Amino acid sequence: MNLISFKKFVCAFIIFNLLFVQIASAEIAHAAVKPASLSNDVEVMKDLVVIVMDTEIDKDTSSYVGLKKDYPDELKEDSLGERVLRYAEDIKENNDLTDVKILLFDKKKEEWLDMANALENI
Fold first, then answer.
1. DSSP SS3 for 51
2. Is residue 37 part of a domain?
């Protein structure tokens, strides 16, 4: 076999393999998908709500009236941090199968990428 016909053979072999791998892999992946079951089993799904709160808001202990005068029995919290906690609890109580996390973010020490990584890891 001369050098030119060997190069043609190698090129043809590579092209064939690339095409075969692309076509066959789709069929193999498709065949590996598990078909949906027809049973009536209920799969429990759980939602996640993440509240991102600046640490400055959490450190603020000032008293805020807000709607407290309209709902004196229901609203006991005065500071913003306490209100965020109450908001998280309200979300959890009123939404079945929902978990709520509060993520504290210090914009003076952390960057937005740190917050993105924290959200990704939750």
1. strand
2. no
